[in-house]
Specification:
702 residues; Ubiquitin-like (UB roll); 4 domains; 3-stranded mixed beta sheet; 29 strands; 40% strand; globular
Amino acid sequence: DGVSLNFVVDRRSKVKINKIEFEGNEAADDGRLKKAMRNTKEKPRFWLVNRLFEQVFNTRPNTIGAYFDSTYEVSNRDFKQFLNDNVKLNFLKGSKFIEAKYKEDKNSIVNFYNSKGYRDAEVVGDSISKLNEDFINLKIKVDEGSKYYIRNIDWVGNFKYTDEFLTEKLGINKGDVYNKEKIDQRTQFDNEGGDDIMSLYQDDGYLFFNLDVVEVRAENDSIDLEMRMFEGEQATIKRIILKGNDRTSDHVVLREIRTLPGQKYSRRDLIRTIRELGQLGYFDPEQINPQPVPNIQDGTVDIIFTLVEKSSDQIQLSGGFGGPFGFVGTVGLSLNNFSVRNIGNWDKWRPYPSGDGQKLSIQVQSNGRRFRNYSVVFSEPWLGGRKPNNFTISGNRTVNRSLDYYNENETLGFLKATGFSIGLGRRLTWPDDYFQVQNSLRYQLYEVSNFGNTLGFSSGRSHSLTFNTTISRSNIDQQTYPSYGSQFTLSVNATPPWSLLESDRYSPDMSESERYKKVEYHKWMLDYSMFIPLGPKFVFNARAHLGFIGTYSNKTDSGPFERFLLGGNGLNGANNFIIGQDIIALRGYDDNVIDPVDPVTGFRGGTVYNKFTAELRYPISKAATSTIYVLAFGEAGNTWTDFAEYSPRNLFRSAGVGARVFLPAFGLLGIDWAYGFDSDDSLSPAVVSGSQVHFTIGQQIR
């Protein structure tokens, strides 16, 4: 015996907010209070034109004189209210009414008043009126109360520091507006600078430190504060406990930790450790969660690091047009947590020997018999296991053949390049420990046989021996989606000065194959990138790049090696692997189209370049499985064949929008739409203005 109940639910359409009005606000206008409500917004509107026509057509002849009456004044508040009523350009913010968010935003209004000294402010009432089926109006009534000021600040329980020192550190003085938000920030945790009272003590080991701010007296418009603190004893780190690093070996994690057993506890070092672990790329940076577990009885603390592993390996499958080389396919594999030590330990194969933080990258490029490139790179970031000495060894082999048009099995000529490099880098402690220096030695052999004039001669060999020094500094918070910090890199590549060591190195009677038998140049590269958070989500990224290639003597030219090409998405084509050209991205223009010709030698590409980029980024998802963000950008750049022609204001400019998706297995994938504003008919092919769509793969430096 029962009945069946069927519930029919009509959700109706989502309700949006048409207008928000305030009552009782004298110290802050409506616009400022609406700004304080982060998640409750009005629908976008722009009614200025309509209001103008209304005023013109509704004006009577006997009222025209009022517009020219000099005694009539419009207050700043009235003008702001007029704009607030008629202009609302929050197109990126939704205007849906969500009750839970609305309650939070009413508290945000109170917090805003508290930050301006209105300690007793409160929302005393609100009402919702229905405009139609889709829109509502909100009316909020506030009681601002009186504005308060700081009168006296007394410190109680401080033994390590004097009252005067703590007051200066606090940064709040007698007569300042009472700002509860600022008081909490300066006494507890100041996320912007870490220069608060709590950090002062906890960075020196006082983990048990506690500070209570008590309002001991409120008279008229003045408040007396008493800072009641308990300093406690300095805590010593007893144990470091790791959880969640199932794939990565403990020693790889422990060597990046700045809070070691036996040291005094330091909040600053703990924050730095979070950054260093995030930089490894093996763990989700959003979920690195260190938990101090204090033991007051013996004055020690255990720190538990809870980690969430993520895949850091990448597979590259791509194709692109390599100019005269045709379509070039690329297959690559990057193993970023490799372990040579575990090759014989099958228990550590997941699915390859892993866990020691070594990197192994293998890449193959080909379009058949015409062009093939093979490269392999191995690096050990802690050579010897005791210090962060980064050891790198790499090799590459490139073959480009000139094939018979009627019989591709017959080779008419070839250009081959074989190279090896070995490098060693280390972290520096001066000027600070964000700096690194990397030194490397590279040998490259070029072999040419009946292959045109690509290297200035049709047959012969060229030897390139270069020494590289790179000084870099990086303090960004994470690699996938940086939100603050900066990166700086200065690198110098130099061959021996053959023209100075051998007097007959470049005699007038020397053939071209002999002239370029020993490659000679020095190359300087400067890259800078800065990330600035704008509000809770937006990130502004500014980048600047500069490069210069020169020679040691006026007896010789720069040759065909190490030239700069600009334009397009910056993906390396075949030329980059054959003769070492630097492919610089410049969205809004065709790939590698900005390649001036040296009027003396006829070689393509510049010997000096610069480029500037500004991007505004907005994250869609920051999950460990996929990071997605959109961006708007403007950039400009150019390259010149001689430093005497260099002009930092003569640039090819562009602007556009794009999106990036980071997938752990494939790395960073991107698409951009850009419009190039400038043209140049003097180049061949000509540089033309217009729109371009670009696809990118990987994290590009330039």
